[in-house]
Amino acid sequence: MTPGMVQQLPAWGPLAALMALAVVALSGAMINGVLAARSAGRRGGGLAPIAEAARLLRQRRRSTVAADELLRRVGVAGLTVAAALKVAVLPVGAWVVSDLAVGLVWFNAMDVLVWAFVWLAGWGQNSVFPLVGAYRFLALAVAYELPLMFALTAPAAAAGSLRMGDIVAAQDGLWFVVWMPVAFTVFLAAVLAFSLQRPFTAPMSADIAGGMTAELSGVDRFLVLTGRYSLLSAGAGFAVALFLGGGSGPVLPDWSWFLGKTVVLLWLLVALRRRIPQLRPEQLMAPAWVVGLPLVLLQVLVVAVVTLNGRSS
Q: How far is CA 182 from the centre of its chain?
């Protein structure tokens, strides 16, 4: 891809992007079902997410005393909305829904929006455990957000642009993951965090009866599950665009390479998170700020020096 080659999709573009996000997220849930069945010594499991979705959609919605229904529904539905807004600036090959000049900032802003949605989901239930879970997520967010912001700085500095299409085009010939491994690793850890996947599942831990999901059932729980997989899928897509060359690849069209890389990375993240134990917020803070933050700052310094030398020569 060369700069300026990204094309905005017509009016049906948002619908196509939503369908692609849903298909990719469903593939992640299905591979999780297969891995869960295999770990239990059973075969199959690929259709388990569909069966679980059908069960939840038939289940009666639970309600607590004096719950703020509006805030709760905004919170549980907001996770999927945030994921959809993220992918709006994500170039799928040569296509994008909205070619914002500040697409990377948009992604980060939608990530912060996730904080609000998780907190609203916990607060709106008017129950102790969901509220504790919501505050736990804010504690986790304090730990991961600053390293994430600097990890996003590295590809933007190398490309000299905040536009996602420019960042993908800057990787023509050499993917950023080759010389930005720290930023790539920190970004993937943040993807697991903002999508509430292990080891960052303390907000939904069993010691607080499920935390933010303690009082959720039926369609509310279905929306939270959908939102988590949608955020994980959106994060995998951004990892491909920021560090793995986007849709670059031989023979096949750009969009097929992009979707193929995204699905493979999503499946790897799903398999990885099943092998990592859960961390409490206080167990994450020190590694994130004492180890992760200095390393990613060093990564940004290296990128800045290399980029400035390249432009002056």
A: 18
CA distance 183 to 176: 9
**pLDDT digit string, tens, across residues 39-94:** 999 988 999 999 999 999 999 988 889 999 999 999 999 999 999 999 999 999 88
Cα dihedral value 283, 289, 292, 295, nearest 10: -150
Contact 118, 203 (CB under 8 A): yes
- Map residue 7 onto helix, strand or coil: strand
Angle at 79 (CA atoms; ends 212, 254), nearest 5 degrees: 145
Q: Within its chain, how far is the Cα of 125 from the centroid? A: 25
Q: Rounded to an integer, what is the distance from CA 295 to the centroid of its chain?
A: 22
pTM for the model stands at 0.95
Rounded Cα–Cα distance for residues 261 and 247 (Å): 8
Report the C-alpha gap between 198 and 179 in whole angstroms. 27
Check residue 41 and report its DSSP letter.
T
E strand or H helix at 142: helix 128-159
d(CA 167, CA 174): 12
274-300 pLDDT, tens digit per residue, is 999 998 888 888 899 999 999 999 999
Backbone angles phi, psi at 293, to 5 degrees: -65, -50
